[in-house]
């Protein structure tokens, strides 16, 4: 629907005008049957207004003209005795009903316009945020690299142990990882993100991820049943997504807790699960954890650093390859499921493999690089 002012009538409006004139003529020629064309005029006007929500002035002009003309015809017939005077009350009654419909239609139009404006403003804000993050990310890479390089030279040239320099280098490395995450989010939203896809042995990649994390994070690591086969995907992007899911599991668990990775496939899709026995995620934040800078961590977890970009990166990578990431959680733990298409199983593959890795907790703190 569209609001209009005074303008040239279109074909539908011209057709209604002709129809209304014909019915007015019928009211004059057959006064004893005039209630039929009378109601047809008002009915078609209501239908026309549903398709053409006019501005107020044209609406009032059309309504006034139709009310006056039909009212005069009914008054004349009542004076001649061909109609009862009570029929004259049809004119204000139909006018009131039409005005009620006008109010409702304009109210609906105003609400739709308001929603459209809000959606446009939100899209503009998101676009500005993305451009800001892109600009900041690109501009920060060079000074971070230069600063870290000078600190590395200073540390190597000094004979004494300088813990302050080590802390500064570690913080710069963390800033560099954040910049890389922001740049990855930028690339994930582009159409050519999955252009570097290749055939990847999924079970081998999952085992490699588990082995690397088992060396640096003291947890009970398990690899459950794995679907054998290959998936067409960007290898580095998939590794980053799995690392982000595992890192999230590590952040919400302690040394005695179990973290298990497994994968099952069906109908060309594969579901990769990262399950932990941690503290779980509160229900009120489950629908926000995949948003950029979304946080579900406690204060102690936030103190270890990070901006809440990990899960948003997983979501972006999944969507960039036509998949999705879901989560189920309870006080006894959480399970993140990365669902991807393009999985191809070997022709003779009958069942997923049995669990092949079970490691005791390792006293090797740290994180993969």
What does this structure look like?
- This protein has 369 residues and is α+β, with helices and mostly antiparallel strands.
- The radius of gyration is 35 Å and the shape is elongated.
- The N terminus and C terminus are likely disordered.
Regarding quaternary structure, what we see is single chain
Sheet with the most strands: spatial strand order: 6-7-5-4-2-9
| Strand segment count | 9
Proportion in helices: 40-55%
Provide the residue-averaged pLDDT: 77
- β-strand percent reads 5-15%
String of helices and strands: HHHHHEHEEHEEHHEEEE
Radius of gyration: 35 Å
Query: What is the count of DSSP helices, taking H or I runs of 4+ residues?
Result: 9
């Amino acid at each position: 629907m569209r609001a209009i002012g005074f303008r040239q009538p279109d074909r539908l409006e011209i057709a209604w005008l002709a129809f209304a004139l014909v019915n007015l003529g019928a009211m004059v020629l057959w006064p004893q049957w005039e209630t039929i064309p009378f109601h047809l005029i008002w009915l078609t006007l209501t239908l026309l207004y549903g398709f053409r929500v006019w501005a107020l002035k044209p609406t009032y002009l059309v309504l006034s003209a139709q009310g006056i003309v039909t009212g005069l015809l009914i008054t004349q017939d009542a004076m001649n005795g061909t109609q009862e005077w009570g029929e004259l009350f049809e004119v204000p009654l139909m006018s009131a009903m039409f005005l009620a419909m006008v109010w409702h239609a304009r109210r609906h139009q105003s609400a739709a316009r308001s929603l459209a404006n809000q959606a446009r403003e939100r899209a503009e804000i998101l676009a500005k945020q993305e451009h800001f993050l892109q600009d900041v990310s690109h501009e920060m890479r060079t000074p971070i690299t230069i600063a870290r390089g000078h600190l590395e030279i200073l540390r190597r040239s000094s004979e004494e142990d300088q813990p302050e320099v080590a802390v500064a280098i570690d913080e710069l490395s963390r800033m560099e990882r954040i910049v890389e995450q922001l740049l990855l989010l930028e690339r994930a939203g582009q159409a050519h993100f999955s252009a570097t896809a290749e055939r990847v042995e999924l079970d081998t990649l999952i085992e490699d991820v588990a082995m690397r994390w088992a060396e640096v994070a003291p947890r009970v690591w398990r690899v459950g049943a794995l679907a054998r086969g290959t998936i067409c995907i960007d290898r580095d992007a998939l590794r980053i997504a799995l690392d982000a899911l595992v890192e999230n599991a590590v952040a919400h668990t302690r040394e005695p807790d179990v973290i298990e990775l497994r994968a099952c496939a069906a109908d060309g899709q594969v579901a990769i699960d990262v399950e932990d026995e941690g503290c779980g995620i509160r229900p009120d934040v489950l629908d926000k954890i995949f948003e950029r800078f979304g946080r579900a961590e406690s204060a102690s977890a936030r103190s270890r650093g990070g901006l809440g970009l990990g899960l948003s990166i997983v979501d972006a990578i999944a969507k960039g390859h036509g998949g999705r990431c879901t989560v189920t959680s309870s006080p006894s733990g959480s399970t993140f499921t990365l669902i991807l298409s393009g999985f191809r199983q070997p022709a003779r593959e009958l069942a997923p493999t049995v669990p092949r890795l079970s490691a005791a907790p390792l006293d090797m703190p740290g994180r993969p690089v």
